[in-house]
Each structure stands twice: as structure tokens, then as C-alpha cells.
Amino acid sequence: MSHLIQRWLVALFIALATLSSARAADPRLFLKKVPVKQPKTVEQQDLAVITPEFEQQVVDLFTKDKCASVRALAPRSIQARLSTLILAVVAYCQTDPLDAEELFMAAEARDPNRDTIYVLHARYRWKLSPDTALPLWAKVSLITRNPATKLLAQQYLAGIAEGDDLIEIGKTGNLFLSTQLGVSREANPLGNAVSENANSSLVGNAQFVLHYLKNTDFGSYAVGYTLLNNRYVTAHSADLLESDLEVPVALRAGTNEDIIFRPYSSYLSLGNQPYWIFAGFSVRGVAYRQFYKQYVQVSIFEDWYFRTEYVNQAGVHARFDYNWEFFPYPWFVNVGAYFEHVQAARD
Asked: Strands, E, within the chain: which ranges?
């Protein structure tokens, strides 16, 4: 009997030793299911840093009109970490208008004076309901620093813009060219103050505008040139040629504020003879607000007349300007005031 008990104890000891060895070697023997490595969630996968190369890829896809690829590349989990401009691009590619509006409002809240964001927003709404886009075009017209963008917004507001061409994103340089030609008739080209005898005449009008704007991390700089030429059929003494040049440099003084230094000059001829020339500079502080733009400007310039009868009117000018532009669509109100001192010879 004792021998039988001894054999059972040895067998029990061997079984326990085997069981202990199996537990240490492979715990899966005691589980109902073999564990499978779970893939990372989308949120875990998208914790990588958003690089400039990634955002450029989004822009490239947008430029190629591949909005489906934009949506796949920038899911909701990473949208909050995108730059404001790329966020607006992603918003433009949304199929659900509610999602698009949410993203556009987030971009505008973070960067309230980026004109390209509002252009994208306005163009998105224009596809769905043009009337709801008009307040956004008014906002673009108010805040943009680019004359080409301002002209685009004004064309939409005037109801003469059509189509839905893709918008160029991320460009730091913009070249704007404009030419206008026209024919009119004036009853007294020189005005009553110059000529008491009216001399009506047909007139051909031509205007050429060139503007180049370069954006930087700290602001922008630009070169603007305007040439105006009016030629009269019979009143040649009123023929006008005006040439204007300016080189403004803008510095970002805050999220909604700019300081602009602007050297400028102008040359004017009247009746094919030199008439007037001036040159100077101005310093302007601009504040962009929700429904208005305000600026204060100090200008100092000097002018010269070529006609002896006007020479005594020339001199150094010091001018101080206040200006407010209100644009709560559909209204536009411009209020301005200035004080000017002229140091000229006695007449």
C-alpha cells in the first residue's frame, strides 16, 4: 500500500513539474484564443510631425484637381495640426458642406487676414449658393494686399465673374498686369478754371498697370507702375500723360496690423509739354478688423512745376491722413480726413 502511494506521489510531482514548465514556456497554452498583434488606430498612426513636404504634397494634389486624394491624405485626425492655408485647401475638398464650413471657420479664426483662405471659402460657397458667397468676396476686397485679388473680388461682387478655376496656392510672388482702352467725349477738357471757352472733343483713353508683389515671412514688398495717356482729337492742349511709380514695403506689426513704407514719384505732362513732377515717401499703419479697415498715414513729398506761372505753388508738403473703409456687405463706406501743410513761395 505504501509503495502504491509512493508511485502516485512521484507521478503527481512529474505532472506538476511539466505543468510549471509549460506555463513558463508558452502562456498561450492557457488562453482560449491566440493573441494577434492589433494594428495602430488612425489617431496613433497620424501622430507624426506635419512637414512642409507633406503640406506641399497636399497643394500639388489640389492643383491637379485631385480632391479625393487630398481627403485621403489629410483625415480628420490630423486636420487640427495643419497650417491655416492647407486647412483651407482641405476644407475646399470636403464633400459635406457642414464639414467644410467647420474647417474654414477654424482656419479664419487662426489667421483672420489671410486673403487666400477667404478666396477659397468664397469659391466653395459660390459652387453651392452664389448669394451666400458675396459677403466673403466683400471681406476679400477689404483685407487683400494684392491688386489682382482685389480685382477678382470686385468682379464677383459686380456679377461679372464666372467659372470655378482652380486657385494657385502657396505662391510667394504675384505679377499683375492690366490694360484698359476706351473712347469718350468731353465738353470742356481743360475745365472752366483754365479755359472759359469750352472746346469739346473726342478722347482716346489708355491705361497700363503693372504690379509685382512678393510675400515674405515678415511682410511683403512690391513694385507698382501706372501709365495713363489721354489723347484728344481737337483739344491737343489737354493731352495728358501721367507716369506713377511706387515701391511699398510692408512689415507685419501684429496678426491684424501692418506698417507700410512707400517711396513714390510721379511725372505728368499736359499738352505734350512737361507740367508737374513730385517725389516723396509715406509711412502708413493699417489695422484690419472684422468689418472695416483703418489706416493712419504720414506723407512728406516735394513737387516742381515746369510752367513759370505755377512755380511759386511748388514746395515741400507734409500731410497727415486718417481713413476708414467699412464693408458690411452689401454696403461700402469710405470715410477720410487729412491735414496738409505746404511750404511754398509766396504767390
From this structure: 173-186, 201-216, 219-232, 240-246, 249-254, 257-270, 273-288, 292-305, 315-326, 333-344
Give the pLDDT confidence score for residue 345 in this predicted structure: 72
Task: Round to whole Å and give the CA distance between 300 and 341.
Answer: 10
Residue 150's Cβ-side half-sphere holds a number of Cα atoms within 13 Å equal to 10
pLDDT at 283: 97
- Residue ranges of the chain whose pLDDT lies below 50: 19-37, 39-45
Cell numbers found for residue 249: 514695403
**The pLDDT value given to residue 307:** 87
**Stated length of the chain:** 347
- Spatial separation of the C-alpha atoms in residues 31 and 35, rounded to whole Å: 9
Does residue 147 have a cis bond before it (omega within 30 degrees)?
no
- pLDDT tens, position by position, 260-283: 999 999 999 998 899 999 999 999
Interval 319-343: pLDDT, tens: 999 999 888 778 888 999 999 998 8
- Which amino acid appears at position 169 of this protein? I
Task: Mention every residue, 6+ apart, whose C-beta is less than 8 A from residue 30.
Answer: 23
234 in helix, strand or coil?
coil
β-pairing verdict for 315-326 and 333-344 = antiparallel
DSSP string, 110-151: HSTT-HHHHHHHHHHHHHH-HHHHHHHHHHHHHH---HHHHH
